[in-house]
Amino acid sequence: xxxxxxxxxxxxxxxxxxxxxxxxxxxxxxxxxxxxxxxxxxxxxxxxxxxxxxxxxxxxxxxxxxxxxxxxxxxxxxxxxxxxxxxxxxxxxxxxxxxxxxxxxxxxxxxxxxxx
Length: 116
Known about the structure:
A hairpin with an 8-residue loop joins β7 (88-89) and β8 (98-99). This protein has a 4-stranded antiparallel sheet, with no helix packed on it. A two-stranded antiparallel ribbon has the order 5-6. The chain is built from no helices and 8 strands. The protein is mainly beta.
């Protein structure tokens, strides 16, 4: 998904994500466009990344195609790739955009973008 002043966020269909790597986490956030986001801890055999994935169980009607799809913050992962291209996380830690060399900012989250 592309949003204004953001690199892409990938919402993965739930059937394409192993259920054993996601544990529902406490807390939620509210997006004025998409609605309430629920969070997940991402777990592996060796680590837990708290609140590192999210989903919109009941998004607003305009965003119904992403209902229950999973998005993952790239920063807490060992690495994320789009095809074979290494991803850099969107700056700032709040947004979950995936930046590859062909994606050019400026993006929300960088210093000085709070008022965008």
